[in-house]
Amino acid sequence: MTKRDVINMALDSINLEAVDSSTNERTDIAKKAARWYETAALYVLNYADWIDSIVHSTFTAEASITNFLDDQFEYVYELPSDCLRVLDLDLDPTALYVVEGNYLYTNLYDATSGVNCRYIKDIRDESSGSMEYSDLLGEVIASRLAYNLAPVDQKGVYGAVFEDILFEALNVNNRSDRWQGGHINPFWTDVS
């Protein structure tokens, strides 16, 4: 699902006119939907560890900034620009780290293979281009967007619909047959 598909699904669910791709004219509700889309998508992406948006990166060099937390953490790495939330380092949920802005502070360092970081990737921009939302994420974002666009007196109804769709999507996400790291086959093979 592209960004436009998600917006149209939200508009359809509240019985409003969808965005027409054959014209450059945009209705007021289409403009409003485009503005609220970012908020709805970000809310959903941050809500859970969606398998479709979990990726990993390897830090091989420290960031070229002054480490202001050097009394607690020896190393500082620059996070990827698409990182919404760090999940863990080297698949160790107990590894200590602090995120401040675009930087991750930790005591982990491996000169040979680097430090692996799993994180939730911001896939909002990609959904209008090369990468598309899965139907699962698209439906959840559309239901959240419909809630945001609904008239005040109908928010309760659309809030309940969003909660139902979110609950179902979380169940599907949690019982996915893929490895918990978000990849069909783990990049590194020494994982128990």
Task: Provide an overview of this structure.
With 192 residues, the chain is an alpha+beta fold. The chain has four helices and six strands. A three-stranded antiparallel beta sheet has the order 1-6-3, with no helix packed on it. A three-stranded antiparallel beta sheet has the order 2-5-4, with no helix packed on it. The protein is elongated, with a radius of gyration of 20 Å.
List descriptors.
three-stranded antiparallel β-sheet; 2 domains; disordered C terminus; 6 strands; about 35% helix; single chain; about 190 residues; alpha+beta; 4 helices; elongated
The rough form would be described as elongated
Structural class: alpha+beta
Number-wise, the strands total 6
Major beta-sheet overview: 3 strands, antiparallel
How large is the share of residues in beta strands?
15-25%
Give the strand order, joined by hyphens, for the main sheet.
1-6-3
Radius of gyration: 20 Å
Number of helices: 4
Unreliable stretches covering 5 or more consecutive residues? 184-192
How far is it from the N-terminal to the C-terminal residue, by CA?
34 Å
How confident overall, as mean pLDDT?
Answer: 84
- What is the helical fraction, as a range of percent? 25-40%
Q: Total domains, how many? A: 2
Secondary-structure element pattern, one letter each: HHEEEEEEHH
